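Hi V.,

Quick status before I head out on leave. The structure for the redesign project is tokenized and pasted below; the design run finished overnight.
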């Protein structure tokens, strides 16, 4: 009845089988279909897969779900207008978390989307983005648009990701890890070590960290790299030197204003992304100090603006081209074989030295 060797998702195959039976009057207008449990046993699939096929037929007004009774056929092929069947598309969804700081307008996310779109065009895919707010968003995004695969970006709730897997939709995670899913991860620990070790070699000891959202994997790992580099240099870790922002320019600016009240002031700032580094530089300048003359600043990501800021920002480069390439390559493998083993792909980083850091004498 269904073929697990072809690339057509199981729910689409079940949808086609049920639709054909309705069109051929095997399931007649006014009759109830077998229950979801029985249908799932017939097709040897999870109930979530069967439910997804039924939801497509409900959306086409061929079926009606009646609470407490079951699923009723409400289509008569001899009377009603023919319904165009649903097919899979070449759409790839780029899904962001509900957190207000994770926006497509954030430079790193925008650059990632742009590079993913380039990779998608090579494969004849179309890429669209949206923000996940709740479980209620999933049917609209996944069912109505019939996506071929999903790229989950940043720290999206694990429940959402697992729910989509139950619908047999291939998924790849970027900058997040959930057991059982392929993840594209930046080498945050290595990149942070590079940044902080460079500052220690310049003679800095009072190195403050403006980190991202505390619960995010990127923040956890960049903090770990910061601590390791300090330890390697024989500098004691001080919790008072670490503050958490939300990846935005505004949070970097606000935190830096507070840090400038410390005595003694920091000699260097390591910001866990470039936008917070730019915010920190603005606060330093407004305080009557200079970068790097009074305080050195390093960021992370190497967004395009780093080359043109005043001063040009020393930062850690995350290879966005490689992230996009590996994400689409992994998604292709999953669409060919949904049971492809999950793997972690670590993207190397590179320290880019520009004008915002200075040797201490």
């Amino acid at each position: 009845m269904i073929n697990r060797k072809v690339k057509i998702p199981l729910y689409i195959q079940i949808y086609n089988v049920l639709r054909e039976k309705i069109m051929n009057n095997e399931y007649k207008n006014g009759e109830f279909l077998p229950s979801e449990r029985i249908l799932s046993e017939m097709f040897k699939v999870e109930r979530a897969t069967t439910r997804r096929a039924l939801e497509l037929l409900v959306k086409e007004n061929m079926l009606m779900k009646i609470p407490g009774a079951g699923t009723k056929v409400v289509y008569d092929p001899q009377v009603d207008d023919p319904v165009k069947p649903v097919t899979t598309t070449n759409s790839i969804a780029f899904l962001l978390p509900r957190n207000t700081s994770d926006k497509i307008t954030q430079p790193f996310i925008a650059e990632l989307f742009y590079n993913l779109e380039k990779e998608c065009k090579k494969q004849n895919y179309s890429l669209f983005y949206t923000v996940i707010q709740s479980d209620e968003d999933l049917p609209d995004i996944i069912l109505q648009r019939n996506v071929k695969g999903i790229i989950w970006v940043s720290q999206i709730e694990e429940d959402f990701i697992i729910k989509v897997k139950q619908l047999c939709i291939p998924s790849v995670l970027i900058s997040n890890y959930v057991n059982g899913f392929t993840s594209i991860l930046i080498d945050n620990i290595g990149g942070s070590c590079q940044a902080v070790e460079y500052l220690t070699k310049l003679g800095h000891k009072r190195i403050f960290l403006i980190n991202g959202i505390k619960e995010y994997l990127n923040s956890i790992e960049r903090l770990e790299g910061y601590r390791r580099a300090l330890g390697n240099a024989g500098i004691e870790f001080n919790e008072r030197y670490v503050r958490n922002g939300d990846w935005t320019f505004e949070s970097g600016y606000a935190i830096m204003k507070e840090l400038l009240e410390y005595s003694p002031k920091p000699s260097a700032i390591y910001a866990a992304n470039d936008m917070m580094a730019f915010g920190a530089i603005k606060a330093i300048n407004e305080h009557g100090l200079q970068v790097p003359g009074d305080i050195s600043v390093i960021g992370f990501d190497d967004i395009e603006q780093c080359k043109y800021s005043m001063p040009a920002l020393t930062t850690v480069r995350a290879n966005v081209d490689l992230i996009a390439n590996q994400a689409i390559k992994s998604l292709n493998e999953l669409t060919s074989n949904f049971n492809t083993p999950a793997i972690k792909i670590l993207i190397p980083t590179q320290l880019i030295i520009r004008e915002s850091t200075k040797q201490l004498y």
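Above is the designed sequence. The chain has eleven helices and 14 strands.

G. will cover questions while I'm gone.

Best,
W.
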